[in-house]
Design a protein that fits this description.
The chain is about 30% helix and about 25% strand. By secondary structure, the protein is α+β, with helices and mostly antiparallel strands. The chain has a seven-stranded antiparallel sheet with strand order 3-2-4-1-10-9-11. A six-stranded antiparallel sheet has the order 5-6-7-8-12-13, covered by helices on one side. A five-stranded parallel sheet has the order 18-17-21-22-23, sandwiched between helices. It is elongated.
């Protein structure tokens, strides 16, 4: 739905039981598939020998029984990649390098605002890069720092102040699995445990499906070091304030995940209730946009008393392998993903609840589709403020000129989309809906206040 794709998925395992490490990571990545559909990769540590497989495509495309059998080991990390265009194969993670102390594998979620500066400085000193990913640049920085420090975690702590932006990171060495969050905690990372084994994941939904006990969120500016003795924590400092990306609650995360003590579904439903208080309209039905709009539409329906109606059918087989339509067929191409059940909307005034609006392209198409299906009125309600600023922290989002809300009034956007009315959730109401979370938030794409 024209979303900000600022997300990747991370999953790691330090196996001290009898788990099939690669297979467990495979299932963990499958649970996190919504965070990235372009590429997937797994690297395992087999007695100091690093074995890995990564390729473009979904987790189920990249791995099968044979490939997983070729990845024995007791420590491993995995990654699903967000949008990477034609470079999905080259930029697939984890990044694996050999350095003076052996092998190291790195996987990252997020983006660095000073990536090109760091890359250029390293190239001037002889570094050669094979990908465009921040993980490769960071792996080189860590490997060089390792020559000055006795442990890998101290080398990482030395490198962290150089990294400007928002990220969560997994690092695997011969004897350790390490999880890292940036000093603002813009990207999520959780620690879990099952029996004697330790897990790291971008979301708790993967823990739920693998029957892993949640232990804690890795704190902003914290390094979690896992070895055969257990877990130790190194605090590099989060004195600049917690600022989790608010889009984790709006769209990125699965509704059954919990971040900083707040379930994502609960936050979205609260946003829907706040939206109904702020922008109620006379209507016959509340319609949700699959899939992330369900919780917010439910909250809106509960608060407004307007019945919730299924009106969109989503083609579950729509994905990255579908041939993309040309410009002339673009609208029909979108409708290959969402279709309207005419009998549910004909002659009705409908409120369509969606979680966010970036470029507005999809909103124009489904508003038009609802009216063509006979809807008497179409009122669009967005459970987030207007996105007016570009995210510099790794988002594959449009530039400022492509943002629907950039420099335009709500009335102008409404006319452009073709809705009968349009309302966005005020930022203060959005934050009220997330008040139970034990963290602060980055809302830079809404207000331009960049924390890093």
């Amino acid at each position: 739905m024209d979303k900000v794709m600022d997300r990747c998925g991370l999953f790691g395992l330090y196996d001290q039981d009898t788990f099939d490490t690669a297979r467990v990571i495979y299932y963990g990545l499958f649970s996190l598939q919504h965070r990235g559909v372009e590429a997937a990769g797994i690297c395992v540590n087999h007695d100091g020998k690093f074995l890995y497989k990564k390729d473009k495509g979904l987790v189920t495309d990249v791995f099968d029984e044979d490939s997983l059998k070729k990845l024995p080991g007791r420590i491993g990390i995995g990654h699903v990649l967000r949008y990477a265009g034609n470079d999905a194969v080259e930029n697939a993670q984890p990044i694996v390098i050999r350095y003076t102390n052996g092998h190291m594998a790195v996987a990252m979620n997020g983006g660095l605002t000073n990536l090109e500066e760091l890359r250029h400085e390293l190239e001037l000193t002889g570094a050669v890069f094979q990908t465009m990913e921040a993980a490769e640049v960071v792996s080189v920085l860590i490997s060089r720092a390792r020559t000055q420090y006795p442990t890998i975690e101290e080398a990482i702590a030395h490198v962290m102040p150089m990294l400007k932006g928002g990220y969560a990171m997994l690092v695997m060495t011969r004897h350790k699995l390490i999880g890292v969050r940036d000093s603002h905690g813009l990207r999520p990372l959780m620690l879990g445990k099952k029996k004697n084994s330790w897990f790291l994941s971008s979301e708790t939904c993967a823990f739920n499906e693998l029957d892993v006990d949640y232990v804690k969120d890795i704190d902003p500016g914290e390094i979690a070091v896992i070895n055969q003795r257990g877990v130790n924590f190194l605090d590099v400092g989060a004195d600049q304030g917690s600022a989790l990306c608010i889009f984790e609650y709006i769209y990125h995360s699965r509704p059954d995940s919990e971040i900083s003590g707040l379930e994502v579904y609960k936050a979205r439903a609260a946003m829907g209730r706040e939206l109904a208080k702020a922008a109620l309209t006379n209507a016959d039905a509340v319609i949700w946009v699959p899939d992330s709009g369900l919780a917010t539409a439910t909250g809106y329906s509960e608060m407004s008393g307007i019945p919730l109606v299924d009106a969109f059918v989503k083609n579950r087989y729509f994905g990255t392998k579908l041939l993309k339509p040309d410009a002339e067929m673009f609208g029909r191409g979108i409708n290959m993903k969402l279709s309207v059940i005419r009998s549910r909307v004909a002659g009705k005034r409908v409120v369509v609840v969606d979680d966010s609006m970036i470029a507005g392209t999809t909103a124009k198409i489904f508003v038009s589709a609802l009216k063509e299906a006979g809807a008497k009125e179409v009122h669009l309600r967005i459970s987030a403020p207007p996105v007016r600023f570009v995210c510099p922290y790794g988002a594959a989002s449009p530039d400022a000129s492509a943002l629907e809300a950039g420099g335009r009034s709500v009335d102008e956007i409404c006319r452009d989309i073709g809705a009968d009315s349009l309302a966005f959730l005020p930022q203060e109401a959005m934050l009220r809906a997330c008040a139970e979370a034990g963290c602060g938030f980055c809302c830079a794409c809404f207000d331009g206040n960049y924390p890093a």
